[in-house]
Task: structure prediction
Amino acid sequence: MLSLNRVTKQYGSFAALEEIDLEFAQGVYALLAPNGAGKTTLIKMLATLIFPTKGEILWNGDDIVALDASYRDIIGYLPQDFGYYRNHTPREFLRYMAAVKCLKRDQVAGRIDELIEQVGLSDVRDKKMRKFSGGMIQRVGIAQAMLNDPRILILDEPTAGLDPKERVRFRNLISSLSKDRIVILSTHIVSDIETIAGSVILIKDRRLFAQDSPAAICRTLSGKVFETDAIEQIKTPRLLLTERQENGRTITRFASERGIGDSGSVRSVEPNLEDVFLYVYRDEEE
Amino acid sequence: MNLFRHELKKIWNPRILLLIAALAVLVWFTMLRGLLNSYESLGTHGGYGSHQRELFERYGDTLEPEEWAAYDVPGRKAALESEMNALIADDPRFAEYGVRDYREYRAFAERSTEGMNDRQTAQFLEAAGDMQDRLSLRRDGQTLDEFYASPQIQMQTLEALESAYAEYGPTLQTIIARDERPVVVEAAEQILKRHNDSLIRVDLCETVSMYAATIGVFAIAATLLLTGVPLARDRARNIYLIQYSSQTGRRILFVQGAAMLASGCAVSLLSIVIGSLPLIAAGMGDYAHASIQSFTYFEMGLYDMTFGRYALVLAGMIVLMCAASAGLAFILAKFSANLITMLIKLVPTGIALSGLAVLAISRAFSFHNILFSGVLRGRVAMPEPILCAALAAIGLAGALWVALREKKADVS
Amino acid sequence: MIYLHELKKLLLSPVLLALAAMCVIANLTFLLVERDSLAPYDQLGHPSDAVAAQAVSIFEGYRTADIAEGYVRWYRLEGDNAERVRAKYEALQPVVDRKAASAEKPPVYFSGRMTDLEVLLFGKLLKHVSQEIGLLALLCALLAAVYEQMRGTERLIYVSKIGRKIQLAKLWAALSTSAALSLFVIGLSLLTFFVLFDFPIPWRADVSSVFDHALGESKPFITWHDLTVAEYLGAALAISFGLALCCGLIGFAAGTGIRSAYAAFGACVLLLAAFDLIARSPLLPVGSIFKSVWSLNPMWMWRNSGTWFTDGRAEVLWANFETLGLFAYSAVFAAAAWLAYRLLRRREIH
Result:
């Protein structure tokens, strides 16, 4: 069990995160927040790259900073925009990362091939990475994170910059890797979460706003999300969410605290995570 | 122009400027100040005592025969001889060795030790040293001024002056007849023809050239530290991809190169201007119109040019070396994927450039200059600025080639 | 295992290999130029002839106090500073007396060609080589220390099991690479020297007797311990390696302790410049303890490589100053490296 007890991170007088309490058991956890809200700060604290100013992060009751190498031994981390050796092949790079993770050489060879296979890079495993696409590099990244078969897999914006096909592929990969371990991923792409996350963590105003399943999170807006092709006729206070074109008409999706009900051109719809995201972070957006 | 200004702004990074300023403080306190102090002291405590300076103050840039006669070196020497005769007559230590006057002392002191055994040699050296101490009024706590005012040292400095301005002929003739360096022979002929009339201080060119070499090395280091970073950083952070695909495109390399060159020149000019202030304060400007072409036993200025022009040539050499440094920094930065690999390349480049700068600038236009005498054996006139110009040309041509080549290169 | 990976990275670094090759080429060029300026060996008497003809028992009756007085006069020393210099040379007198009494090692003072050899091998080549391997070690350690930061891989690695301890593996790898490159530079440079200068060196003779006089001075070459020429060469190379180790530690400390690679490089430049310039300047009075301590720094040691194992000059006040300086400064830089490593362990990586 990984838990955060009243964790605060301050940079001088600026608080990046305040009094975060969280608990992670097995499953996929998605940190959802807009850019700059503190997702990466939290991720980096979990990865021991930065340290809490107040509070503590515990793994099975022990402070992760004090656990030092024994904690790092059970985590896998994929940073956002990570660096790599351009002249290495995936195999060479993974061999190096295996050494860094203090894995025994004889155990590693098979594991590396297996992971390369799993992330779909078998054809290019002996090719230099300098010509690799962003998606391929990201797959090398996940392979290195999985090398030590981690109990905790930490992924920082793993699908950012990937094309839709790569993103789907990556989501499936994460899903397949999530058995028997904690997967914590930070993202602001809500479609990623809807498909793979068992639990969503929302951070707002530097504090924990909510932690629940995607469905439960969505239910918080139940009955408050509507669609209409005549938004100008809606006089009640509302928050515009999204717009889409349908049969030559502009369908506007909006949220309103007051019950409007199905009437005329307005119809109530099931809220999704994107609606919740836009609704929760409206202050920041507007 | 706007882009050029931005590139300049990237180069003139306050933190690096702070580092350079710290280096400048170190260089001043540890090297330049010492050279300047030594120059100031040598004005009265050098081989000619204060006589050479006096001659210059009295007669200006050149020494005419009637001015030399008016200075009356024989008369001064005769007065000193009488003074020393009196000292010798009053001191029984001289009488112990049968020395009754200055002439006999000279004969005694100049005796050869050949044929003496070790004990006799030691005894002789001790006695001669003792006599010399007495004639130079040696005592504990004697100041340099007092030492140089003593009759023995006064006599020595007058003799040195005489050999430089009256007895130079035979030595120059020997050089003309025997020296294998054509440029030195030509200079000796010219000096002979002009009767070695320049009253420039014997240590002036050496001091100024060493000072300039120090500033040169500092300016090269400052140029390399300052100019290489932005270009290497643009490359390391892949900013060059955005730059290349902008409207300016790959022309940006020319702008960056020009900014680096301008910065190198500015660094050198700033160093020269700030560095020359103490020299001017020390009165070196007074010699601006004196010719550097002069001869003493240990120094020969080879070319007939004024000291003012000489100082400008030294300054030009520093600027050229900095231009070369900027050009090479451009090339190295262009071919380095990150800062550290660039720095590793910059270090030997900086050492080589500094070495060449010292070789060229230190004692430039003297027959002691290593490049002139040691490397080229005195066959080429003024090789020092030629070397600096050649290095600048190599640096700039190389940078230009790299920038042109990049115009059609595939960018990975 | 990680050590081997780090070693491979550095040993295969083109920029380091090119730098080492450049050092060898520079030394080769230097030796070729020097060879042209030396008179052919055949035109000089053989050392044995010179010994027979001109052997002088230089140490018999030699007073080290005269050296001290020479320095006191030259530097116009007074008070404690003068006394400290005198005390050092007083301590040297028994060494001279022992050398004078040593019957099995007769002095071969003024043995002709040995002056050229001494100046070229120990005064110039060794100085160049020593400086070159020091520079190589410094840059190698700096490169190793900032390698991951440069490539943006440090977040991946610091989160792995080895974490920031990887810096230690990098330090060992940098020192090993420096040692290997140093061997390469020294080996090829010495090989070139002995190929170019075919001269019978009296390897087993006492170095104080073989070398004409201390480099650039008129005093004899007085070593504190009796060393043969071979031992002297070996010891000088050992000190050179030690100085390279010092430089490696400086590079590692700067690269690890300072976040910006460029600032780390700047700090190294500033430190070495301060070492050199302050030691050469008259800021610190000769004979003072501070001057003596300062003069043990690697830059001064390089500049004065020809005085190692001898009395040195008036600037240093202690016997065996090269060994003392090496250990003292190595300890300081090792402490700095350790401190830098501790800092890194606590540093936040953004």
Summary: Residues 2-39+56-346 of chain C form one domain. Chain C touches chain B through 26 residues (CB under 8 Å).
